[in-house]
Specification:
5-stranded antiparallel sheet; alpha+beta
Length: 300
């Protein structure tokens, strides 16, 4: 049930509120509970208005396409923000690409290729949005967002609009140090001028490699654990005997054992419990404590 207090204190906006909104079909794991309130802002100004007018203590969680997210079975209390298509603009100018935070990483890679901007091919292998890529300094095949980053537009919890450069982003491995309550709305990335056909050829090669080595057709959340310094998480998991390990409807992928998959009707609890089992087995065998790369939100 939605609390009367929460319903009555929601700011007036031009976007849309949905009460007790299912999130299961919005995340790649296809598991988890609902949002108490789901808010889709009309545009950047509408989002800023909401943030400035919300009462103190109102919980706000931002989600993208849920490619690296586990929503727990009890759902997410408070307001969940999901940016709609109005945050999906793409503009090319010389060697730069300006992208709304809701743009899919793969779409950004394709747009860069069409515009003759090389160096962004790695985005084709990241199953998420630009907003999420900024938040976690997403990367693959030896490249990360920080390698191509110019600046980002964001909104602070007060509703203030700001522009952040590389120093303010504080990129480290699989993380930006920007506070979690700052919401990214746009990014400018820079590549190098190149022939579109050459860019597409490199991009297609990356796609083929990814599809041959990862369970991309399964209900999964992408890479589950960060690589410990100097080591590969998948190798530790494999050597700890976890390949194919099952908990309820969740399984460690046989194809790539740093991926957890929903084999059918797994609960979020099944998936998280399996991940914790894997962490415990790796710790017991190697003394290495794996750190979750998948973001886990909500209540059990």
């Amino acid at each position: 049930m939605i609390s009367v207090q929460l319903r009555e204190t929601l700011p007036r906006v031009r976007g849309r509120y949905v009460e007790h909104a299912p999130l299961k079909d919005l995340v790649w794991f296809r598991a988890g509970g609902p949002a108490e309130i789901l808010f889709r802002p009309a545009d950047v100004d509408d989002l800023a208005t909401f943030l400035a007018a919300r009462p103190d203590g109102m919980s706000v969680t931002v989600i993208g396409v849920g490619s690296n997210l586990l929503v727990r079975d009890g759902g997410i209390p408070g307001v969940v923000i999901r940016l709609p298509a109005s945050f999906g603009h793409i503009e090319a100018d010389g060697d730069r690409l300006t992208l709304g935070a809701a743009v899919l990483d793969a779409s950004a890679a394709r747009a860069a290729a069409d515009a003759g901007i090389g160096g962004l091919e790695f985005l084709r292998g990241i199953p998420g949005t630009i907003g999420g890529a900024l938040r976690m300094n997403a990367g693959c095949y030896g490249r990360e967002i920080r390698d191509v980053f110019v600046e980002a537009a964001a909104i602070r919890p007060s509703g203030e609009k700001v522009v952040l450069g590389p120093a303010e982003m504080g990129f480290v491995y699989r993380k930006s140090t920007v506070p979690e309550d700052v919401i990214f709305v746009e990014a400018v990335l820079r590549g190098i001028r190149d022939e579109p056909d050459a860019i597409r050829a490199r991009m297609n090669a990356l796609v083929e490699e990814r599809e041959s080595s990862q369970p991309v057709r399964s209900k999964t959340g992408g890479s589950t654990f960060k690589n410990p310094e100097g080591q590969k998480a998948w190798h530790l998991i494999d050597q700890a005997g976890c390949r194919g390990l099952v908990h309820g409807g969740a399984q460690v992928s046989e194809k790539h054992c740093n991926f957890l998959i929903n084999t059918g009707e797994a609960s979020a609890g099944d998936i998280e419990a399996l991940g914790e089992d894997v962490r415990a087995r790796v710790l017991a065998k190697f003394g290495v404590e794996l750190e979750w790369e998948i973001k886990r939100v909500g209540v059990p």
